[in-house]
Amino acid sequence: MGNLCACLAPKSVKKRPTKRLANPPPVSNLSNRWARIRSSRKERLDDAVIHEQALAAAILLQQHQQNGSMPFDRSSSLRYPNSATKKNSLPRSSSSRARSHTDALLQPHQLVNQGIKLDELETNQFVLVHGGGFGAWCWYKTIALLEEGGFKVAAIDLTGSGIHSFDTNSITSLSQYVKPLTDFLENLSDGEKVILVGHDFGGACISYAMELFPLKIAKAVFIAAAMLTDGQSTLDMFSQQAGSNDLMQQAQIFLYANGNDKPPTSIDLEKSLLRDLLFNQSPAKDIALASVSMRSIPFAPVLEKLCLSDLKYGSVRRFYIETPEDNAIPISLQESMINARPPEWVSRLKGADHSPFFSKPQAMHKLLIEISKIP
């Protein structure tokens, strides 16, 4: 706010000599008018900030409050646009204006029509799958932007993540961890398809789902995500950079719920290192949200090797969004995964850290829309 206030502050000017009137007119009306203008401008700026901050709190609060006569599935957060939504409203291209390093969320009145006809798309429904330690809460900006454009959005809390009430240390398999996602896909009606989006460890999770439900997934988007090959585990993928990512090694805290003589049951991340590891380009308020919302990462699913066939997993169209400022999954590792099994389409999100839904929400949203339009 310091720089913003400096920009709005009136510039100093030299006073010109003026004739003093014997009976000067009252200036109260003028000063009141100027005060109203300044107040209105400040209120608009404050409203924009408050609106963005409130989204994060609202998505969590809404999940907790939905009960009683409105059953709520704690494994997912489903939010659909109402009939009043402007279905063709989308944000301007990120290249059309100067951008701040935080890429702040656009307000609804700034969204412009880009002529998308949702009924002509293969699907207008996105399913967002978070990474290890995250939850559905991390997608709040992406949810707001997609819904403003008329898309349907489901943000899933995987087992033991977000507000899903399960002990992370008790998760013993990948199938158990991704059950909220597979339940969601299984309950889709016949012929209904979605665009599946996975971040970080969520890449392994959507890969598992692609093998099970290839006919229900129109496209799969990997965002700074683990895109594995057949017979590979997420741990195998990370081992490719063993010794080269000191920050990740420093941040990891292994938990042994079954005793120190047994394998780890989950992994925590040192809070003092979260900013540098996951959010080095993200706004402070989003880092604060993450610091109180992140949970342990179950260890067993990270160890599990995936069975991915060409007939099922290989039949789903894959897209990859790279994050060049990523300290958790460095760009070199991302490119290694891409080269091992090239997807249909790759795009690099300039200036994005490991959490582009915070650091570059508009630019990431634009890429998701472009992917949805590819015939």
UniProtKB/TrEMBL annotation:
<dbReference type="InterPro" id="IPR000073">
    <property type="entry name" value="AB_hydrolase_1"/>
</dbReference>
<feature type="region of interest" description="Disordered">
    <location>
        <begin position="68"/>
        <end position="102"/>
    </location>
</feature>
<dbReference type="GO" id="GO:0009694">
    <property type="term" value="P:jasmonic acid metabolic process"/>
</dbReference>
<feature type="domain" description="AB hydrolase-1">
    <location>
        <begin position="126"/>
        <end position="364"/>
    </location>
</feature>
<dbReference type="InterPro" id="IPR045889">
    <property type="entry name" value="MES/HNL"/>
</dbReference>
<dbReference type="GO" id="GO:0009696">
    <property type="term" value="P:salicylic acid metabolic process"/>
</dbReference>
<keyword id="KW-0378">Hydrolase</keyword>
<feature type="compositionally biased region" description="Polar residues">
    <location>
        <begin position="74"/>
        <end position="91"/>
    </location>
</feature>
<protein>
    <submittedName>
        <fullName>Methyl esterase</fullName>
    </submittedName>
</protein>
<dbReference type="GO" id="GO:0080031">
    <property type="term" value="F:methyl salicylate esterase activity"/>
</dbReference>
<dbReference type="InterPro" id="IPR029058">
    <property type="entry name" value="AB_hydrolase_fold"/>
</dbReference>
<dbReference type="Pfam" id="PF12697">
    <property type="entry name" value="Abhydrolase_6"/>
</dbReference>
<dbReference type="GO" id="GO:0080032">
    <property type="term" value="F:methyl jasmonate esterase activity"/>
</dbReference>
<dbReference type="GO" id="GO:0080030">
    <property type="term" value="F:methyl indole-3-acetate esterase activity"/>
</dbReference>
